[in-house]
Amino acid sequence: MDGHFIDLTPENLAQEHLCCIIRSKKPHPGVEEKRRWLAERLREGHVFRKLDEKGVVFIEYAPLERAWVPAEGDNYLYIYCLWVTGPHKGRGYGRALLESCLADARARGKSGVCMLGAGKQKAWLSDQAFARRFGFETADTTETGYELLALSLDGTLPRFTPSAKRGSVERQELTIYYSCQCPYILPCVERVRALCEDGGIPLTLIRVDSLELAKALPCPFNSFAVFYRGAFQTVNLLDEAALRRILRK
User: Fold this and answer.
1) Cα(100)–Cα(47) distance, rounded to whole angstroms?
2) pTM for this structure?
3) What are the boundaries of each domain within the chain?
4) Helices 240-247 & 185-199 angle (0-180, nearest 10)
5) Which residues contact 130 (CB under 8 A, 6 or more apart)?
6) How far apart are CA 96 and CA 203, in angstroms?
7) For residue range 11-25, what is the model confidence (pLDDT) as tens digits?
8) Which of 240, 224, 228 is nearest to 125 (CA)?
9) How do residues 39-70 score in pLDDT, each as one tens digit?
10) What is the assigned CATH class of domain 164-247?
11) Same fold: 5-161 with 164-247
C-alpha cells in the first residue's frame, strides 16, 4: 500500500481536497457548504482522515454524542462515511482507514464504534459487509429495515433514539430532511426541487441545521431522509427515476 493519510484541521481545511467525486474548476456550492459544516464540527472532535492526494479514499467519524444522527450510546464513535473508489480500490486503504478509527477508539478509551446499516445495503451507506468482517454486529434495528451496526470494546451497545424508530410524520406531501454533511446533498435538493416545481408536486424541505434537530429526527439519518404520504422511504439521495418510484407508491 502506497501513500499516507492526513487529517483535516482548521488550518488545512480550506486547501485540502474533500475526496468526493465532484470535478469543477468553479466553486461548488455543495463542497463549500461541506467546508463550512466541517469547520464547526472539527472543533467538536470530528475526524476527517484521507489519503494525501486527490482521490476518493477517506473515513469520517465523530463522537456519537456530537454526531448529527438520531442514535445514542455512552462513549462511542460514529462513522458517517468510509469510502474507497476508483483506482485506489483493492490496495488496502479501506482496511487501513477503518483500523485507524478503531485504534483511535481504543486510544481514547471509547466503548466502541458504530455506523448506520440496513437489512439490504443502501447505495449511500458505507459497505456494511466490509465492516462486519472487522466484527461489527447489529446493535439495534428499526421496522423500516435499517440497522445500527456496532463493534463494542466493553460490552455496551449504542441504540437508535426512540424517535428514529417512529418512521412517520404528519405531513403527507413529499418531505425531505437534509444536512450539508455530504457535498452531494445540495445539488440533489435543488434537482428534486426543480422536478417537483415542474410537475406541480407538493414538497417540503427541512434543513437539519443543529445537533438537537438531528438527534430528534423521526427516522434513521446519515445526511438525508425522505418521507412520502407520512411514511419514511429512504436515506438514499434521489435521482429522477428514484423520485418517480416513490411518488408511484
Assistant:
1) 11
2) 0.94
3) 5-161, 164-247
4) 50
5) 82, 94, 98
6) 42
7) 999 988 887 765 656
8) 224
9) 999 999 999 999 998 888 999 999 999 999 99
10) alpha beta
11) no
